[in-house]
Design goal:
Low-confidence stretches: 1-46, 52-61, 248-256, 308-313
Order of helices and strands: EEHHEEEHHHHHHHHH
Structural class: alpha+beta
Number of domains: 1
Shape: globular
Number of strands: 5
Largest sheet: 5 strands, mixed
Mean pLDDT: 78
Helix content: 40-55%
Length: 344
């Protein structure tokens, strides 16, 4: 945590780590009700093609292996998340689940803390205190875009045996290292056209999106109730800082606290896993949400120069303000194994 004027902010301390991994058509007949678990053929149903499109259109994208047939799934299909407003609302919902899974003592410390959306494209998140000493949480547009790209490509690869996550990272990470103006938005052409509108892909992407958000903001909440920010004392908060003031904080390197980051990794992972267990019989969150995001940052680290001095010079604030992502994945996995052993 570091003071900038009278504003105190603790940058995102995620535990990045190395991990694992249409065209709409209509029918002239009247649609008939289908049993649970039914999946319409490719291109049917109100599912958008790959989102978001980019202009001018890019080329056909990287060659992908022929898609495999995904395994049967009986969970109800979830509607897709399309657009930044839908993604922001999804974060609010995930945050509510995380709060509900905390102990009564920790709930009392962080209930009512405002969530602020930073319009910058920097991939990051915050837990901090404003100039009046009120706590807040913040997410950048950039981190929501990155999580969307991760979720869409991971879901596609999981269901169809493609390599779209690798293609996504290869497309966006070099630009992110070169410029703090580069976006992590999923480029057009990464998802094969014949898979883009598949409802199974969109549903699985939403599950992964929520899972990654749960790990991310489980960590951020932990910074508050563990006392790292020093301002979350059960007083809640107002509207939070003006989002226009948050962007400048990303260029400031805070004092790094390894012990605090590790503690927030542990507590945040427990919180996300507890919240995931409470979701039964819906999709149950696992540590994979953290691992997926962590792998993304590990690849960003490698693209920036595999750590060391080159990372300190990176325009990406996360790499300047956190330890090597590759060194933190084993800790997350150890914490998750402990949790699973205790919750059986």
């Amino acid at each position: 945590m570091r003071k900038l004027g009278s504003l105190v902010v603790l940058l995102l301390g995620l535990a990045p780590a190395l991990a694992a991994g249409c065209n709409a058509s209509t029918s002239g007949s009247t649609p008939q009700p289908q049993p649970p678990g039914y999946y319409p053929p490719y291109g049917q149903g109100p599912y958008p093609p790959q989102y978001p499109p980019q202009y001018p259109p890019q080329g056909p994208g990287p060659m992908q292996p022929p898609p495999q047939q995904p395994p049967p799934q009986t969970r109800p299909l979830l509607p897709p998340l399309v657009g930044i407003q839908a993604q922001q609302q999804e974060l609010r919902s995930v945050l509510a689940e995380l709060l509900a899974a905390l102990s009564a003592q920790n709930q009392a410390l962080v209930r009512g803390i405002p969530l602020v959306f930073d319009p910058t494209v920097e991939v990051n998140a915050f837990a901090g205190c404003d100039e009046q000493g009120a706590p807040f949480l913040a997410a950048t547009v950039g981190i929501l875009e990155a999580i969307d790209g991760i979720a869409q490509t991971r879901a596609t690869d999981e269901l169809f045996g493609t390599k779209t996550y690798d293609a996504y990272c290869n497309a966006v990470l070099p630009a992110m290292v070169r410029s703090d103006k580069a976006r992590a938005t999923l480029p057009q052409g990464i998802i094969p056209a014949n898979l883009g509108a598949d409802p199974r892909r969109w549903s699985r992407a939403r599950e992964i999106y929520d899972e990654v958000l749960a790990f991310t903001f489980g960590h951020e909440l932990a910074h508050h109730y563990l006392g790292h920010t020093g301002c979350a004392k059960g007083q809640g908060g107002g509207a939070g800082p003006d989002p226009a003031r948050l962007g400048r904080l990303l260029s400031v390197v805070p004092i790094f606290n390894q012990a605090g980051e590790t503690a927030s990794d542990s507590a945040g992972a427990y919180n996300a896993l507890d919240a995931g267990r409470a979701r039964r019989p819906q999709y149950e969150w696992s540590e994979n949400g953290g691992v997926f995001l962590l792998d993304f940052f590990a690849r960003l680290e490698q693209t920036a120069g595999a750590g060391g001095v080159l990372s300190l010079l990176s325009p990406t604030a996360f790499l300047r303000t956190h330890p090597n992502p590759l060194a933190r994945i084993p800790w997350l996995q150890t914490v998750a194994r402990t949790w699973h052993g205790q919750r059986r």
